[in-house]
Amino acid sequence: MEVLALVGGEVYSPEYLGRKDILVVGEKIVSLSNGIPSELLDYLNARVIEVSGYIVVPGFIDQHVHIAGAGGEGGPLFRTPPVRLSQLVGYGITTVVGLLGTDGITRSPVDVLMRARQLREEGISAWMYTGSYQLPPPTITGSVARDIALIEEVIGVKTSVSDHRSSHPTVEELRKLISEVRVAGILSGKAGVVHVHVGNEKPGLRPLLEAIDGTDIPIEQLAPTHLNRNRDLLAQAVEFGKAGGYVDVTTSVSPELGMRSSVKASEAVKHLVKEGVPVDRITMSSDGNGSLPVFDERGNLVKLDIARPQTLYREFVDLVLLERVSLEDAVRVVSTNVADHLRLRNKGRVAPGRDADLVVLEKGSLRVVYVVARGRVFVEEGRLIRRGAFEEV
Ligand SMILES: [Zn+2]
Known about the structure:
By secondary structure, this protein is α/β, with parallel strands linked by helices. Helix content is 27%, strand content 28%. The protein is built from 10 helices and 19 strands.
């Protein structure tokens, strides 16, 4: 087993722990200490990486990536390709949750499952949601509950509300789906979340709140996303977050990309905090490799772009450098909170026993210097040194 020591870095776990030496054996962090004796490092034949003057944070977790591709709005030409490993790990993302989007007709959760398995073999961590925008959802085994209960990689379902591409589910249909996923989560010891694409239509989060109203289902069972796509939805998100719900904002949704009514993710996070949403209820995800269709007022497609996973890193940096959110809180938003919400027990913290997913950043600029995923070095001195299958080195 390979032994790695990252010595002298300032660790944020997300809490600031000061200068610590991190000892990694295989895929795990085994200790955090104020100094590893050199005899021990020699004995273990450890590879020592000097990270004095740098910051060490837990690897980023992106819970919304179209790992097997998505899109297709506008025809086959607009189908987006599968995500490449370098697009993730090159920007500090060491864990992804894959999913389908609008197209659950010509695409299947089976594709997502196999890409998740491939990403695991390529060296990072990957899970997935079954389903797509549509109801009834496409599945792997024939039922959403069986997918979650029987397939290790599946930790919830994806669906969509308040969008012209959704199935416009009734409150009853949503309640049934949420209940099914909750039971499957309980049986399998998983979070069993309902990850919900929320579109631009006026009702926004209302169908979700109506679906759990009068039930004992906790609001954390829901994971609504894209909540920064317009100001009205962001206002609803404030109430949702104050009620204890997790609020996910999308880093590839931005006015710069032609989505005029949207709010840049880092700005949205700052706004949510200012309005009283507890910071431990806020998460960011990229929507990486999703298509970014721009429709006119009549619903006609006028333009299409592709969402990039690296926007998660960019908004993390802007959160700290432009919005002046503390580094601890920024780390919570891109890592710790996501791990807690999705019950990814070995993720989201720099601590003994956790997976060795580490991002080393330059102080000040927050430039990525090293990325370690499951104990292996992927980025070294700012250079990507390991790529995915069939990616050119
Ligand atoms: Zn998406």
